[in-house]
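Researcher: Batch entry, complex prediction.
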Amino acid sequence: MGGTGGKGGTPWLHLAPALVVLGGLLVYPVYELGLISFLEYTQAQVSGGEPTSFQGLGNYRALFTDARFGQVLLTTVVFAAACVVATLAVGCALAVLLTRIRALPRLALTLAALGAWATPAITGSTVWVFLFDPDFGPVDKALSRLGLSGFDGYAWTYDRYSAFALVLLEIVWCSFPFVMVTVYAGIRAIPGEVLEAAALDGASQWRIWRDVMAPMLRPVLVVVTIQSVIWDFKVFTQIYVMTNGGGIAGQNLTLNVYAYQKAFASSQYGLGSAIGVVMLLILLAVTLGYLRLLRRQGEEI
Amino acid sequence: MRRPRGRLLAESVALLCAAAVAFPLYWMVLSAFKPEDEVLSEDARPWTAHPTLDAFRRVFGQQDFGRYLGNSLLVAVVVVVASALIAFLAAVAVTRFRFRFRTTLLVMFLVAQMVPVEALTIPLFFLMRDLGDVTGVPGVGLNTLGSLILPHIAFSLPFAIWMLRGFVRAVPESLEEAAYLDGASRARFLWRILFPLVFPGLVATSVFSFISTWNDFLLAKSFIISATENSTLPMALLVFFKDEGNDWGGIMAASTVMTIPVLVFFVLVQRGLVSGLGGAVKD
Amino acid sequence: MAWPSTTTPASLRTLVLVVVGALLCAAGAGGCAPRTPAGGAGGDRATGTLRVWLFREVDNAPKAAVVDEAVAAFERAHRGVRAEVTHIPVETRAQRIKAAFNDPRSAPDVVEYGNTDTAGYVRDGGLADLTADLAAWDDARALDPAAKRSVTVDGKLYGAPLLVGVRALYYRTDVFRELGLKPPATLDELAATARRVHAARPGLYGLAVGGAYTYAALPFVWAHGGDVAERKGRSYEATVDDPAARRGIAAYTSLFGDHNCPASRCARMTGNETVQAFASGKAAMAIAGDFSHQAMENGKVKGAYAVVPLPGTREGRIAPAFAGGNNLGVLRSSTHRTLAVDLLKSLAGKRTQARLFDAMGFLPAFTDVRAEAARKRPFVEPFVRTLASGARSVPVTPAWAAIDAGQVLPTLLQEVVSGRADVDAATAGAARKMNAAFRKNGLRS
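Model: Structure tokens for the complex:
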């Protein structure tokens, strides 16, 4: 590879606008984030009421001795994992389904999925909360009419697990379309003979997926998995809106919301930044792990 | 040569899924058109016999709602166009050139996507303030739409570059060589030949930058402090969340208004999106 | 280009180096902190535009009308001066005001703020010291001492009270008549009455309570002889885990449950939501402020409710109410200091407060204006009586802002109400958090 014009400075000329923007508005702020995480930095320091002082690892020490933080960290990892698995399962299953149906139902499902995808996170969260509202929402009514009377007026956001389940549903709803569309496009690129040969062998759908499609789709799956991990680990709007900033007594806090609460609600910018740095490092580790995996398999990035 | 029974079952399942997926949106639009007493009734019915525009009237009657809508559109369009152009150039550089640090850069672009944007609000706030103070350029700095546009371009770039790579790579290099043999300049090749070929990919990519920009309310809330005329749509939505009981009809109407532009955008680019995502990851 | 498969790729190494380098640099560069805003104190220009931020109330039009009138008079008296009033939504105030402290160019000159925020804002360096400016202000002599305390930090005045707010017990006269009930005379009676109403009318909360409604819980603590914290030398110490305070917390949290206000609904309710529940006819009683009067009048309960002071533990006592209220202050960064103070005197003066009472029912912070108001509208009598029997407040220290923002008290209440912890464990946890905040934000001399 390598274009004909690939001499010395030219790639950097092409890259210059991107690097300037990213350097100024992403790298520099990240550097500042790291810096602030080492400082005693509350509202008083920000507005100049008190001098800034260097804390070393003080904020990090405070974090790791805070039982709450450990709990939130664990919750975040488990919750993100659940979201990723659920999103991938639903997205892949529906992608396979799309290949087995005629154009009209396919169009219906695709359009519905695009609708869910297009819905802004803030409106999506709001609508789901409204759907599950104990007084005015249709879901509780429908469930109790189906004979599950325990759900009449059930407050989904009161219990920790049902609140998380509700948020998980919303997240799967708005993020499975990306997986579905991408995987569907990937399946379409698999030569038809391969799939037909497998079908003629009488293999079940699950076997076809596991033995034929999944291996061929590996690059696609890697991309959607990385994206899902990145998005779901950082989930903010849904938790913030649906559980009202972290739930009763903070039972539904995830890292990003916790950082926001620390930084903005409590003005402990140093502590909030330290949480941000910890998140960044975790995601970095996940991504590097993936890259190594790719490399071992000789994939190109 | 599949059995029709199996296909029928599959199609029923697909239609059921479609209905379930579409239901929240249906409920949103329905509630936006219901009269207020039906929205706030204990007996939630999936239809209404008295559709009304009252909720929309409340939304648009709210001060400056039209202006917020315009601001949101302006910000989103500028971000989409700027990030698409910048990402296109960068994607060309990382696929068509071979240079030191190329792979490092690629990894950096991937890593950049992981940055929790919410955490960057603090440093960005000071950056925007200082930009306004130091440069004195109108349209830059706190309280301006520029303070929303600039960070969003930066936030959408890494993913856009990452995705566009696949599209650029899919254009055969022989085409490039042929163009040069015909005497085309580098710029001409870039904008007249490569750009149109990659356009579907640009569209697919811009969906993501559009959504994330359109969605944002954290930056809007933090950076637009005293110039309310520069607020964006999500701020207008918040007005209907009231301590004294949410105006669900108004919220649903405002949500509908907020969702429609994205839906329109999606339908317009739908074809490019489906083939685009396939192309991006197919390699 | 494929990854080389044997050694660690150079790119990964570079990346790790960059990240580690950045962290080390950040760690080593403690001195080069992000900048603090250039403008400390502002200026004193005599012309131009003054920016004013006031809270947007539920039904804001009458307030805006009174304010506009006062502003118009001010503009007539000062040639070449304009005042631009913005009514900001209350829920965005914290962020906006912080942003204003951080960026003087965005900041208003005069600002309305909740009286529990005073110490925090002063510590943040945002409010101007107005002691000298207000010394010669005639109106100030009639200020209610409690209201005056709420603008005072370390003996200096940082603004003027605009209104005081105090809560009392609203109850449904129709429901009480039908069930043959009397307004409760003690807190125990209150709990019993609430149970009886809910048993007879399962669709109604006996007394609407909220797990996030701190200002309803505090009177229970005070009535039982406890407090959340007390002054120890130059700092404070949490007393929320003392036996008396625990009795108060237990009394308040015992109101949650299927016998009165189911925890699944009420644990997360805020004060406004309990008010809304009462206004929409879903509760037989609620603890609500004089400022909620209009919401009740606009609700379903219009004409079917009355108000009495919240009773204490013994008959004839009144539970100490939380002395709420809003103040007006001038920002340190204001570039029109004298003008801003003049405008503040006009907006927080007796005349405007009297008119605000007529328009909005806000209780004036001046004792004489308030007495006059009570004569005109008997409705405010139970509130004035509650104030007269002694309203209390939370510690005036910057630490309280941190405790408030950290949701320490709502978390305490919600933990007990949801059964996650008992009163002893939850109060002990809250006391720990509060003491940590007090230590960190020790009083400055």
